[in-house]
Amino acid sequence: MIEIENVTVRSGAFVLTNVSAVVPEGDYAVLMGGTGQGKSTILEAVCGLRPIESGRIRLDGTDVTQWKPANRNIGYVPQDLALFPTMTVREHLEFALRLRRASRALLRQRVDELADVLGIGLLLDRRMRGLSGGEAQRVALGRALSFRPRLLLLDEPLNALDESTRDRLCELLRTIQKHNGLTTVHVTHSRSEAKLLADRLFVIAEGHVRERALADLNALCDAPETADLGSSPY
Amino acid sequence: MSASPPDVTSAAPQLRHKAGSDIPFFVVLGGIGGSYIVLIVLMLAADLAFTSPVHIEQALQKPEIQYAVRLTLITCTLSALLSIFVATPLGYLLSRFAFRGRWLIDTAIDIPIVLPPLVIGLSLLILFHLPLGGTNLEELVERYLGVRITYAEPAVVLAQFSVACAFAVQTMRVTFDQIDTRAEQVALTLGCRRSQVFFHVVLPQAWRGMVAALTIAWARSLGEFGPILVFAGATRMRTEVLSTTVFLELSVGQLEAAVAVSLVMVVAAMAVLGVVRLLGTRVMA
Predict the structure, then answer these.
(1) CA–CA separation, A81 vs A188, rounded Å?
(2) CA distance B182 to B188
């Protein structure tokens, strides 16, 4: 479970004030809103990458507001993926486990498991250069899932993908989340993604976050920014 | 949008237009830029015309010059390694973290670059001999580390390092500026300490920049003359490096030897610059 209580966070001249939201254990929350509304800023604050000015963030009942990102046990997939250019796909999947001093047997088991679920078994010895958008996306997801985080944060993870890849990845995300009962926050401005994935819907506008009923989804007008497709970062 | 779009089919006459040749542009730019290249080439050509392989061979056979070549290679390598060892952490800190009083550090790092090298040497000399409660830094170092600095080999390395390191810091800082910080942030969420981020994520991406910084520091050290002359002296078979050799030969009227040694340095510098060009200052993306 994740509880955001009256959080105020600043990103340059831009401020989000008194943001409150609760995502219950095991739910898939979708956070929608136009470009520049601060969706990514909220995720960064939850990860601990952006200091908050006031308020609290609780994960599974524990106040983690002052914790380092490293200790929060959150799997984070940023919008630009931020893969490690010098590492192979396998090294990405092993990275967090090596930090946790996993045994060789565990490393192998976990890498095989992830590669199987994500369908990247044939890419394990490749580097990031030359991976397709969908492949890079799955590597970033695998890296975030590798250490069995208690929370998964996805920042527009399907943005740069063509439609069929996007649908397949939606299905994959849903399967992984159901299978692991992983509390997930997924930022997007696509209504179709929200329809496919959301247990809960949050909408951010003008510095505030509100929970909306899923039934409201059709009434929300797509922001014009929905059309802006980011290019693949690789 | 309610306003009607501007009428682009107005009655204004269509003006005929034909872009002229681009050749004059390139001729002028090439002419201005080329004059400098010509100057460099002419200088080297004059050196070559003045000397002969015999002169170079004779110069290289002198034991003092052989010693200077050896000392130059050793001191340049040492000061370049020392520079990169210091410049990597400093460049990273300056690239990544904002802190109070940072402008002071930025300015301090630029001092060795803007100051006349001779002044650096003089400042080192004064630093090591300033009275410090009945003793001085030179004596303290000699007492506790057992080495003489001033007018000895360590002074050569220290004089080279004082200037070369500033250039290495600048290179490393640009290198780290060019590396995306997002991967570092994700590494933090994966459970890294800052040190683990630095060694596992940042440094592997910085190696091209490190090679470039190392080479620049090496080349700077090779060209260092003023500070070495002041702080290390120009004692033959002791603190004489190639740049000092040129000066010493010149001062005793041995113009041929001075030019021969200069050409040896040109070859060394070009080899080093070639490595930089080859690797590029571009950081691996």
Answers:
(1) 15
(2) 10
pLDDT confidence of residue B270: 86
Report CA torsion sign: A106, A109, A113, A114.
positive
Partners of B216 in beta bridges:
none
With CA atoms as reference, the chain A residue closest to B207 would be A86
Q: Does the structure show a pLDDT above 60 at A232?
A: no
Q: Residue B205: its chain A contacts at CB < 8 A?
A: 85-86
- The phi, psi pair for A183, rounded to 5°, reads -65, 130
Q: Residue B186: which of A71, A78, A100 has the nearest Cβ?
A: A78
CA distance A176 to A146: 12
Q: Which residues contact A38 (CB under 8 A, 6 or more apart)?
A: A9, A11, A14, A16, A204, A207
Cβ-contact B196, B273 below 8 angstroms: no
Cα B191 to chain centroid, rounded = 37
- Which of A48, A77, A74 has the alpha carbon at shortest distance from A60? A74
How many CB atoms are closer than 10 A to CB A101?
7
- Walk across the sheet containing A151-155 and list its strands: A74-77, A151-155, A183-188, A28-32, A200-205, A208-212
Closest residue in B to A127 (Cα–Cα): B285
User: Please, which pLDDT band fits residue A77 given cuts at 50, 70 and 90?
Assistant: very high
CB of A88 closer than 8 Å to CB of A124: yes
DSSP B140-194: HHHHHH----TTSHHHHHHHHHHHHHHHHHHHHHHHHHHS-SHHHHHHHHTT--H
pLDDT value for A226: 39
**Distance between CA A220 and CA A32 in Å, rounded?**
10
Nearest CA distance, A97 vs chain B (angstrom): 9
The answer to whether residues B247 and B225 touch, using CB atoms and an 8 Å cutoff, is yes
Give the C-alpha separation, A31 to A186, whole Å: 6
Q: Tell which residue, B83, B56, B52, has the closest CA to residue B245.
A: B56
Q: Please state the ipTM of this predicted complex.
A: 0.88
Q: A137-167: per-residue pLDDT in tens? A: 999 999 999 999 989 999 988 877 788 888 8
pTM of the model: 0.84
Token pair for residue A42? Answer: 């909220």
CB of A197 within 8 A of CB of A185?
no
- Residue B159 CA to its chain's centroid (Å): 13
Alpha carbons within 13 A on the beta-carbon side of B203:
12
